[in-house]
Each structure stands twice: as structure tokens, then as C-alpha cells.
Amino acid sequence: MFWHLYLPIAGSSINVILIFSLGILVGLLSGIFGVGGGFLMTPLLIMIGIPPTVAAASDSNQIVGASTSGTLAHYRLGNVDFKMGILLLIGGVTGGTVGVQIIKILRAVGNADFLIQITYVLMLGFVGSYMFLESLHALRKKEAAQEPPVVKESRYARLLGKLPWQTNFETSGVRLSVLMPLGLGVFVGILAAIMGVGGGFIMVPVMVYLLRMPMHVVVGTSLFQILFTCIDVTIMQAYSNHTVDFVLALILLLGSTLGAQFGAKVSKKLGGDQLKILLASIVLLVMVKMLLSLLLTPDIMVAYKGGH
Amino acid sequence: MLKKTSIFLTLACCLVLGQPFSSAAGYIEAHLTPAAVDIGAFFNGTKVYVSGDVSRDAEVVVRFSGIRQNVALKKKGKVLGLLWMNLGSITIHNVPNLYIVSISKDFEPTARRQPDKWEEMGFGFDALKREVDIGSAEADSDAIFTEFLKLKESEGLYAIETDKVTYGEAKSRGKSFEAVLQIPPHLTPGKYSVETFAVKDGTVSAKTTAELQVRQVGLPAFISRLAFNRGALYGLLATIIAIAAGLLMGVIFKGEKGAH
After folding, report:
1. So what's the ipTM on this one?
2. Looking at the domain assignment, is residue A34 inside a domain?
3. Is the CB of A68 less than 8 angstroms away from the CB of B151?
4. Which of A9, A13, A114 lies at the smallest CB-CB distance from B185?
């Protein structure tokens, strides 16, 4: 009896140990890869009987704690590029606002859910496969020859160089136009709003491949950014939908803040390419999971309205 | 007028004969222990006992149900003959949020043999289906109701319990009984009704109704009030506590590192 706590907003009771362990697991992922972990946590919470809207909102409350803990740990390791993070954040918030409007239009046209889920699966499949193959290739090359790879001046790099307002991002060690993080932030923000996810999964590959930031800095900067996105989401959800269950979030975040600290240490030990391969595997796993949920006949043909 | 007279006559007869109701019509009296369910911080479902006396030759059926409301559902369907998606939504009107019918083990075969009688008396999911309104526009309303039942049963909110009523020793007038209502942890606070029926020869011979109040107390009640009445403040506090927890964990870990 002692190990059960009643969740006042979810209107159900849960096993404290189970939720705490879930928190540790997601915190670890978050500290290692710089993702929020909502993709994993929200469905698991729904599975144990938490209403979908409460699961999503309480999870974002929990991520606030985990990403604070993770950002701090990565900051100490010198892995947070604040300049880049703030620019991406500005773009992300703008994109999120635009995305909410787009989704309204899509819903009005009809069959929006179909479009969203298919886009999501295709996107995760593409990003995951690309990342996996690219880092596998890089790892093999490293084994074959220890000489530094020759960086080719690609068309993309030449295009980047032509953009106005070039500036140095010291922590990341790159020189880019301010427009790049702003624009990509908008892009990710739109996608995240449409798909109803935090965006860590899209943001991390964008930072690695399009902004060419080193993997470790990507993880820290991504966490820094997720922190602010989730503060915004938590307050909005609590204010307009009353779906944040603080008891649930508190147990989760006790686990996840702990997990995030260990995650940051693990992240430091792994090489950039190893990190990328692992993350790519998780992205592909999520993709397969989503695809299965689309392909398998559901047990129950109706569901309560109000989830996402 | 005539009806009133007959009620008066029946009551008069009862008084004369010194019995609460004529034994031919059957009688039942029941009370709940506890009379209300308090949801505190450690609530994980509970049990409520319905006990009392009933006519010796009658069976007891307990119907435990919640307030009637409209439920909006998403309907799943196939797109391109391959992919399962939420396609459209439907509203089922006038369904209880909880519906648990309990009977005794010995009564189960009888109830199973006479589904028509069972439904006629208003017990079970078939009877419930007649009371709810899925909307005339829905061609497959039967299928939708079946799926809705599955959803509710998976949450433990709808059930037919066949071994929850037991009988005690026979008394001069009748026999004692006890029914155990398993209260699921998934319960929404509010008013619930516990109807206890005496059933004889396929008809209800007597009935008594009690109200079961389910309410949040202590910490859950405090958090609910804050979340619903002061949403912005609640959200702000929730984020501040989360940030504080994250910072605290960071400080603890730094301290640990320094010690090494």
C-alpha cells in the first residue's frame, strides 16, 4: 500500500517504484543524447492507465527537471553553446506558433492525423537511416586509417558561406550566418508543433548535419533548448487544460534528474560517432514502433477523445 | 387517485401484519460500510461492503453505477486498406462512468440461462445498451458499443462480478447477505449509486438504493483545487520545483565529484 500513490489529476494510482525507474531510464537517455524522451515516456504512461493528455503534460513538467539537471552537467563539461541555443530557441518558438496555425488548417481540410503520422514515420526513417549509415561509415574509416578526413568544400558549405551576418560560435567551433540557426529553429518548431512532440529527435540531427556542430556540444545545447520549450508547454498546459499532474511529475523527475547526471557522464565517455549510431538506432526503433501501431489491428476500436 | 389508494392499502396491510412489506412481494434492506470513499494520497482502490437482510427465497443483485454522462470517442478505421488511424469521432450519450453488477456464484447459471429476463430486469450490458444513445446516424452502433465496453472493462470500470455476493445464516424472516464492491483506483470523485435488488422468479421483488460519495481528501484534494482554480500559479510552481530539483541534483553530483 505504501508503494502506491494516488495521482489527483490523472485520477488513478500508480506504483512509485515503477514510475521512479521509468524516470531514471528517460533521464539517462536525455543526458546521453540530448532528447526529451517524451517519445518513450508518454506512451508508457498511457499504457499504465494515465489519460493521454495528462501523460503528455506531466511528462513535459518532468522534462523541465531532467533538462535542468542535464544542462547543468553538460555546462560543467563545456558542452553548451548558449549563443546557438538562444538563436535556435527564438526560431523554435516562432515555428511552434506557425505550426499550431498550420495544424488548424490541416484539421479543417480533414485527415490531418493520417498526414502527420505518415510524415513522422517517413521522417524518422530517413533521419535514422542516414545517421546510422553515416556514423557507421565514419567509424569504419577511422579504423582503417587514423589520418584526419579531408573536408570537401561541398555546394552546401559554399552556400552557407555566402549567407549574410556571418558570426563565430566559439563553443561549437563553427562560423555561420545567424540566419541558419534562426531558420532551422523555425523549421523544427513547425514540425514539432504539428507532430505534437518535443522536437529533440529532429533538432539533434539538424544541429549535427546542417549546423555542423560537434556531437557533444549538440547534446548539451539541445538540452538547454528543451528546458525552455518544456517550461512554456508546462505552464500553458496547466493554465489552459489543467492536465499537469504534479505528483506524477515529481516522482518522474526525482528519477530523471538523477538519470540525467549519469547520462552526461556516459555521454562524455562515448565518442561522437558511437553516440550518433546509438541515437540513430533509437530513432529507428521509435519509427518501427510507430509503424507497427499503424499496421497492427488495435485491440479496442475506440479510444477516449482528447489525446493526441 | 386510485394508485394512491392502493399504496395506502398496501401500507396499511403491512402495518396490520407487522411486517415491513408483505413477504410475497419480498423485502430487502442493506447498508454500506464504509458509507463514503475518501481518496487520500495513498489510495489504491478499496472495498465497500453492502450487507443486510433479504427474503429467504430471493437472490441479491447489486448494481453499482456512476453518474450518466456523454462520452466522446475516437473511432479507429483503416486507411488505404492498410493503416489503422483515428477516423472521425462519435459521442455516446447517457452512459454511466462506472457500471458494476455483482451477483452470487450460485445465481450465475440462472442468470446465464435467462438472458431475456436478465435484460428485462435492467441488469447487464445488453440492458445498458438499450438505455444509452449512440446516435441514429451510426450504422454500426452495436459494434461501437461492444468496443466501448471493452475500453471500460480494460479500465476496471465496467464489470459483471459473478462471485461477489455471499449469504449468511437464515433468520426468522429472511437471510443475511454481504456483497463486496471492489472500488477501482481509477475512480473519478463524485456521487455513485448502489442499488440492491431482491430477485425472485425472474422479477425484482424489492429494491433499495444507497448513495456512495467518493471524494478526494488531504493532499490530492489540495492539488486538485490548486490545479483547477489557479492553473497559472500551479503551472509556475510545478516548473519552479522541477528546476529546483534539477539544480539540486546538479549540486549534489558536483559535491560528490569534489570529494573524489
Report:
1. 0.79
2. yes
3. no
4. A13
Q: Which chain B residues have a beta carbon less than 8 Å from that of A220?
A: none
Chain A residue closest in CA terms to B219: A8
User: CB–CB of B141/B135 below 8 Å?
Assistant: yes
Q: Distance (Å, rounded) from C-alpha B216 to C-alpha B220?
A: 6
Decide if A249 touches B, using CB distance below 8 A. Answer: yes
Closest CA to B109 of B162, B181, B153: B162
Q: Do A301 and B147 touch (CB under 8 A)?
A: yes
- Structural domains in chain A (count): 1
pLDDT in tens, chain A (308 residues): 468 889 888 888 889 999 999 999 988 888 888 777 777 787 788 777 788 778 888 888 888 998 899 899 889 988 899 988 999 889 888 888 888 787 777 767 666 667 777 777 888 888 889 888 888 888 887 666 554 445 555 777 777 777 778 888 878 778 888 888 888 888 888 877 776 666 677 788 888 888 888 888 888 998 898 888 888 888 888 888 888 899 999 999 999 989 988 988 888 888 778 888 888 888 888 788 878 877 887 777 777 765 43
| Spatial separation of the C-alpha atoms in residues A257 and A268, rounded to whole Å | 17
Q: How many CB atoms neighbour CB B224 within 10 A?
A: 19
In a domain, A167, yes or no: yes
CB atoms within 10 A of CB B257: 10
Q: Do B147 and A304 touch (CB under 8 A)?
A: no
Domain residue ranges of chain B, discontinuous segments joined by +: 26-216, 230-259
CA distance B41 to chain A (A): 5
Give the domain extent around A234: 12-146+163-295
Instruction: Please answer whether residues A207 and A213 qualify as being in contact, where contact means their C-beta atoms are separated by less than 8 angstroms.
Output: yes
* Phi, psi (degrees; rounded to nearest 5) at B27: -145, 160
- Name the helix (H) or strand (E) containing B97: none
- Nearest by CB to B231, from A231, A239, A302: name it: A239
- Cβ contact (<8 Å) for A69 and B219? no
Of the CATH numbers 3.10.310.10, 2.60.40.1930, 2.40.50.140, 3.40.50.620, which one belongs to the domain with range B26-216?
2.60.40.1930
A266 at the B interface (CB within 8 A)?
Answer: no
Unique residue bearing C-alpha cell 450518466: B68
* Residue from B38, B44, B157 to probe the interface with A (highest A Cβ count within 10 Å): B44
Size of interface A-B (CB pairs under 8 A): 186
pTM over 0.95: no
